[in-house]
Design goal:
The chain is an alpha+beta fold. It contains 4 helices and 12 strands. The protein has a single domain, classed as Umud Fragment, subunit A (Ribbon).
Length: about 220
Amino acid sequence: MTEAPAPAEPAPAPPDHASQPARPAQAASQFLKETAFLVGMAILIAFTIKTFVAQAFYIPSGSMLPQLQVDDRVVVSKLAYRLHDPRRGDIVVFDEPGERPPDDSSLPEKVGRGLLQSIGLAAPSTHEYIKRVIALPGEQVEGRDGHVYVDGRQVVEPYLPPGPATRDFPPVVVEPGRLWVMGDNRSNSSDSRIFGAVPESTVVGRAVVRLWPLRTSSFL
């Protein structure tokens, strides 16, 4: 009686390349691609937030003393005035009045500077001012006896130091679409007393939070 032939052994399966560890060069390439993607997304998010939502600003001068100190950092909301009109007492950032000189820096310099400014790690350009809204369109504002009067009524200004603080200036009627702005440090502030009421269209946004120093952080 003859024995049945032994069954043939199955052919070895081809190697599963998916289960093989990635080569070092491939892993490094993948890491660089993921890092570049994440950095690009971070830049895009920062740019979008800076352009449409909010931006961090340094306080470059003492014109808003005593409430805001030099080198304080504040967050400026760019959405605030899409929800409501400017109000008396708001602290606003606006473009420097007058003609702005051309920016001759390169595109990479502009982008890098803008990103650092958006997160408060670089001082803002000198082309933005920060002041407080004192009078609104159509109102008459004047400085008299050390105080500010709007439509004949003294403005209550608890953010100023005690005592008379404002030098006299003649009555001015604020034109439509403009705001009368002044610094809290009335003896050392270039504001509407010098360059007149500013167009609302030049307002960047409203300062809502003092972010730095942490020990003095607060809503504004």
